[in-house]
Amino acid sequence: MAKKGVPLSEMATSDTHGEDSAYFAGWKAYDEDPYDAASNPSGVIQMGLAENQVSFDLLEDYLEQHPQEFGWGCGTSSFRENALFQDYHGLKSFRRAVALFMEQIRGGRTQFDPEQIVLTAGATAANELLSFILADPGDGLLIPTPYYPGFDRDLRWRTGVNIVPVHCNSSNGFRITLRALEDACAGAETMKVRVKALLLTNPSNPLGTAITRPVLEEILDFVARKDIHLISDEIYSGSVFSSDEFVSMAEVVEARGHEERDRVHIVYSLSKDLGLPGYRAGTIYSYNNEVVTTARRMSSFTLVSSQTQKMLASMLSDKEFTENYLRTNRERLKKRYEFVVEGLSNAGIRCLQGNAGLFCWMNLGELLEEPTVEGELSLWNLILHEAKLNISPGSSCHCLEAGWFRVCFANMSQQTLEVALMRMKDFTEKMKAKQMISSM
Amino acid sequence: MGLHVDDHSNYNVLSRIATSDGHGENSSYFDGWKAYDNDPFHPIDNPKGVIQMGLAENQLCLDLTHQWIKQNPQASICTGEGVSEFKDVANFQDYHGLPDFRKAIARFMGKARGGGAMFDPERIVMSGGATGAQENIAFCLANPGEAFLIPTPYYPGFDRDFRWRTGVQLLPIQCHSFNNFKITEPALVTAYQTAQRSNITVKGILVTNPSNPLGTTLDRETLRTLVSFANEKRIHLVCDEIFSGTVFDRPTYVSVSEIVEEEPYYDRDLIHIVYSLSKDLGVPGFRVGVIYSYNDAVVSCARKMSSFGLVSTQTQHLLASMLGDDDFTTKFLAESRRRLSRRHKVFTAALHRVGIKCLESNAGLFCWMNLKHLLNEATVEAELELWRVIIKEVKLNMSPGSSFHCSEPGWFRVCFANMDDNTMETALKRIRTFVDRGNDTTAAQAKKKKKWSDGSLRLSLPRRIEELSIMTPRLISPHSPLVRAAT
């Protein structure tokens, strides 16, 4: 805190930024001792970062074959125009390209109108914006657990909005049930928290599963009944291993003749599917014009660099490239996933059956000393310091059942993944041996 | 607004923040842009259109930047020479920013300020333009309902940036033309006491140096007064130095950072600088904002918040290279100042010739023009009426002083760096014609007090500013006139 200084705001001194959670503590440990095959082979392998690095070569090849001369073509006017462009509508060509890309991901089953696209610097900003727009301080957002730990900051920190967890469990594969939704609402009512929206992540982070159509329909009925908004964060939509296994909320809305669409808002970003988190290219797609207008105004605080908009507009307008990219990316992710699941299975570890994303939802319940958060964190700590693997404990994702962990597999080379799986196997064998001895 | 009486129509009502007009777009500052959008000047396609003089952009040196980029293809990750960096750059999302980027920005900040102070890369926090930086710092320093004092006249965007989502208030420190709008200690004290009497907690002061819209720089004495006042009252001082590289004439620019370095007995934990490349480098589209704080806790907090508005690493990478090129930045800053100085001289001289005086200024991308002698009466209404005439009859969009919360009616901010020489000539010609016509009218109607509401100068603009928004269904946001001209 300020030494002799003047107090900062309460917001500044709170810890709602969330960085004190175990989720981030693991990153710190990795930062201090990062694995490198050559220079630091016994370092920590980062398996807590949901990044997609399996398809970079496709992007690099594209850029090499289509060098956009200095990024702006030959004329000064093209550069000048771009450098000056700060219109919060965003470059039309970029919005069109994003809309097209989103349609391709959904196999052409939906239509996206570029006029309904609002650009933000990443999905982080998009989610915060929607929280500011749809809820007042003290209001609540329903979020099914387990959920991405970043939401605690993104949705609550500066907005003052509450998260009302909708608890899901392994008895039904963590499917979102009507009962869980109703229970969460009842709980909110008791706490006098006014629920304003439901936020889904589909495909789910950390589960790695795409939500099925019947569940989506049920959810849309639910939000209509409760007269609340629905945010569908579809940031991993391009990472579903088989494209026909993904149903977007947009499809459900369209199938209903656009009924209830004024309450539906889709968040997307190029950070996961394209592996470009540094470029801060996020978007809100809303069917609600008032939300679009307001979001656009608010996006002034978080616009996408015009340089980046222009480059990505070119790349994503190339249909041949994007079709090939999406297909290849899916195949590679699927292969990685199957490889990881098999490797974990060899170590006697079960995973939730997943069909999407950059991670597995792994169950280490058998290795816990006690089926509690403390037990889970104790195990997590052991894995971090003995196995030298940073994986994310389920409690940081607000999972009510102890023993689940999210393991990322797309942010490293195949070789590193092999090393990681071997370490996991060694670790579990050691742990099981210890358990056997202590039970004798 | 936003009262939820009926729980069954919940979703139709968005949040209070969403439904308020804190976005600020209903101000007359933006109404002029709307008028421009409806009828934009183009030398060939629309020579009678409205010339945009309400947009403080620096378009005078983009050729220099473009040339550097052409000569340095390795700085762009989408060229053959640069693509090898693509993967690392695209993957990097650390909110500390690329180390080379921070170093280059720190260096450039020092140079833009004439080398009077050095900046530590570790204290540089990124943001979504200065717009994002201002909001971020407000969130860090003040609670909803608390206030920052701000000298008038001030940039209208602050009403949105500093207040909209934060709930923080801006309270004016009234400045007047009799002493060239200098910020005086009595004015500071008055503003502070007024807040206290209303039970409003003052958390800090927000100044812009060089000033927008005045185009003047703060002298050392004023800066010391501000720093001293902040220390005495135990409040923060935020200095927006976004135009620091546009100082084209004496007096020499003094950044608050120099005061910090010169006066160690002042608590530097109270001092924070906002910066951006949008004005000095002329690249508003790249969204490069900076918070520079001497307070470690603020750096830490602002950095975490910067997650909501990071600079694209593609852009960081390019600028790290460009701003790391010492030769280029030295030449660029010198040439930019030279071109601004020339533009300013030509413009103010031409205005002077038709009897229009501007506040004497040495910085910025605009003039603070005195049109009091053209007002029917010394009121805001009269000022806005004159402004309507200027848009409608003279076809120039300039910003009325009332939109800057100026305490005296009759001042207008007119931007001169966002157009080429020919467009500027056209604008000046229109002003000359307008003044001449006004003189003729005055001579013909010497006894009548009302100058602008009769005869050929019939107003056909709506009487109320708010009605202008109906004329323009499209939403507004900054459009450069040259961008329009080129498309």
From TrEMBL, chain A:
<dbReference type="GO" id="GO:0030170">
    <property type="term" value="F:pyridoxal phosphate binding"/>
</dbReference>
<dbReference type="InterPro" id="IPR015424">
    <property type="entry name" value="PyrdxlP-dep_Trfase"/>
</dbReference>
<feature type="domain" description="Aminotransferase class I/classII large">
    <location>
        <begin position="45"/>
        <end position="422"/>
    </location>
</feature>
<dbReference type="InterPro" id="IPR015421">
    <property type="entry name" value="PyrdxlP-dep_Trfase_major"/>
</dbReference>
<dbReference type="GO" id="GO:0006520">
    <property type="term" value="P:amino acid metabolic process"/>
</dbReference>
<dbReference type="InterPro" id="IPR004839">
    <property type="entry name" value="Aminotransferase_I/II_large"/>
</dbReference>
<keyword id="KW-0663">Pyridoxal phosphate</keyword>
<comment type="similarity">
    <text>Belongs to the class-I pyridoxal-phosphate-dependent aminotransferase family.</text>
</comment>
<dbReference type="InterPro" id="IPR050478">
    <property type="entry name" value="Ethylene_sulfur-biosynth"/>
</dbReference>
<dbReference type="InterPro" id="IPR015422">
    <property type="entry name" value="PyrdxlP-dep_Trfase_small"/>
</dbReference>
<protein>
    <submittedName>
        <fullName>1-aminocyclopropane-1-carboxylate synthase</fullName>
    </submittedName>
</protein>
<dbReference type="InterPro" id="IPR004838">
    <property type="entry name" value="NHTrfase_class1_PyrdxlP-BS"/>
</dbReference>
<dbReference type="GO" id="GO:0008483">
    <property type="term" value="F:transaminase activity"/>
</dbReference>
<dbReference type="Pfam" id="PF00155">
    <property type="entry name" value="Aminotran_1_2"/>
</dbReference>
